[in-house]
Structure formats: structure tokens, C-alpha cells
Automatic annotation (TrEMBL):
Pfam families: Inos-1-P_synth, NAD_binding_5. GO terms for biological process: inositol biosynthetic process; phospholipid biosynthetic process. Residues 177-281 form the Myo-inositol-1-phosphate synthase GAPDH-like domain. GO terms for molecular function: inositol-3-phosphate synthase activity. This is Inositol-3-phosphate synthase. Belongs to the myo-inositol 1-phosphate synthase family. SUPFAM superfamilies: Glyceraldehyde-3-phosphate dehydrogenase-like, C-terminal domain, NAD(P)-binding Rossmann-fold domains.
Amino acid sequence: MKLAIAGVGNNISALIQGIAYYGMLDAEALPGVARPVLGGIAVTDIETVAVFDLAPNKVGKKLSDAMFAEPNNYPKLETPGPASDPEVTFGIADPTDRSQIDAVAQVLRDSGAEVFLYSLPTGLPELAAAYGRAAVDAGVAVVNCTPDPIAGLPALFAEAREKNIPMVGDDLQSHIGSSIVHGTVLSLLEERGITLTGSYQLNIGGNADFKNLREHGGNKEASKHRALRQKVGNTDSVTVIPSAGFVAHLHDRKIAHMSVEGRGWAGMPVRLEISLQVQDSSNAAGVIIDLIRIAAIAARRGEGGFPVAATQLLKSPQMLTEWHEQVPSGRAALSALAADHA
């Protein structure tokens, strides 16, 4: 499966190194992978054919070198370099410059990419829209792992669906992240009849994403609330702070603290304190690997718009108004793809 990428950050370093890591293993069951094969596409069947970035210390370098350039700080694994190692191309710097969008679209066409993965820093909605435009012009499926809208742009999404171009987004649900853990706990209290009186979620980390989110966290906060509403109907008493602090020595590690308070029988207090520590970019890559394969399968089948199999891997896509009704069918579709090894 041929993949094009915008943004050579920690998530991409984790993804590319992880693919190489699994290529070293001689096993059908891969640790940390729920679905080794989806629709006939194995985890190790990914070939990166085009890469875009704007950072001077990444542009012009091979992907294998650029993914370790600062400020990236995902651990360097003892794995061979990627089988396909394209040079990083200067991408879209001015989203109002149509010639830059056209240039990216042409690179996508020439590369033969089936899927375009958008992974630039959060807080650049104009760039996200411009890259989405380029991918649709090139006829390439889109996966957006950031909360800046691409699939959430109604006109662009409608055009993609009309042209039979899959569009997956916006913002992934981490492998085991604060949103899914927090939402599950809130759902448990609701199911057991505990009245929620207040809850908060604080996230800290030491990668560039956490540093960036201190100033550009609006879309991320909204996305996290949408993710929680997958589990519970009302999040008015829940506070979410996507980046409560940038702590440099944590590097790519993320620490999340969640507090939930409620009232049980006779108004007696109930309180839960939960701490979660993960390698932040591994948490993303473990889901990206499924999203890009789902998009590729949909593209090969000529199915445009949002692939329902991606439903439970995202933080409540903005274009799905009846989210809860979509989740069961999404699980069934994902299970069917995992069972299809033809």
C-alpha cells in the first residue's frame, strides 16, 4: 500500500520505525497490534512514496534521517531503515497560493500514492484544508490524524464523496489514551447510577505537540469533548485541558491525570483518581496503521466519503451526526476487514 505523508514528526517516526520493527518478527500475532492484516493488507505492507514538510532541517533529507531531526524525540529503535526512503519535499507554506497546492497534488499523482496522511502540528487549520484540497484534486484517499478539520469541511467532504475518494478524520482516538479511559469511566458511573458532579482531565508531555497545544489547543479540546460524548451524553461538568504543561524531560512520554467525582446512594460521595502514562507517539501510530489501511481498502473498492470501519478509531468525526448509531456497524465492518485475508 503506497502512502504519502505531510509532517515528519514523532507520530511518523513511531509509525515508520514500528513497521520496520514488525518486519523483524516472525509471528502472526504481533505485540501491540490488534489487526495484523486488514483486508489483505499486512502491517508491513506499507510503502512510503512521498513526504512533505516545511522544517529546514527536514526538507531535502531522506525520511530515515528526517524523522530523527529536532524537535522529534521519539526513541530510536534498533531496527533497519525503511524499505522505501523518499526525500522530504517542501510542501505548502502559503495555503492561499494555488500553485503550491497544485504542486503537492502533482507529487501525489506522480508518486502513485493511494493514501495521504496529514500529520502536521495541531493549530494550522488553513494548511490542513490546503493539503486536503491537494489530495482531493489528486484523487488520493485522506487520513487526518489531527483535530484541524479536513473531513469536517462540508464542501470538501461532499466533493470527495462524489469523486469516490475516502476521507478519514478528524483526529484519531489513541490506542489507549486519556479520552478513551476517561470516557469509559464516565460511562461506567452513568451505567451504575452514580450522579456525576464534576470531572477533569489534565495531560502533560514533552514533545512538540504538547508545546504547540499550549497556544493552539482549541480544536483539540473540542475533539476530546466529542470523544467523551461517545460514551456519555453530557460533558458540561467535565473539564479537559489537552496540554496542562510542557515538561521537556518527559520527551515523547505522556502523563494524563483524570479525576471523577459523583454522588451515590443517599448522596454519599464517590471519587476516582486515575493516572495514565504512555509513549505518546506509539499510542498514535498503533491506530494510524489501521486508519491508513481502512482508507486504502475503501479506495480500492471505489467507496468515497467516510469508511464506517474507522468509526471507533476516531474522536467522533464531525460529519457523523448520529455517532452512537454508527459505532456498532463500525465495529462489525472493522471485524469483517480483519477477517478478510484474501
